[in-house]
Specification:
Blueprint (H helix, E strand, L loop, with lengths): L4 H5 L7 E6 L4 H14 L5 E6 L4 H7 L5 E3 L6 E4 L4 H11 L1
Parallel strand pairs: 1-2
Antiparallel strand pairs: 1-3, 3-4
Length: about 100
Amino acid sequence: MIVTIDAMINTKKPQSILVVYSREECHLCQDMIHALQLRQKQSAFKFEVIDIDDDPQLVSRYGEHIPVLLAFKDGPEICHYHLDQAALDAYLSKIR
């Protein structure tokens, strides 16, 4: 489990690390990751990329439904296939 300093200070605040479930050879995944990296230049947030092919349970859960951006591991889905800027902005505004 990832614990941020914010999470340690205020346990009621959601974790601010986003998770992208993806696959290595997935152009949509690379597009979303790149879009998130560009978005980080405008607004401070962290994200991690998890390759679903490293975990059979993740393959079973997400299959071809990738990339998927979650608020945190097993958290609510923000968007999938393409980065939804409005949905990301809405989530980020809730946690700030």
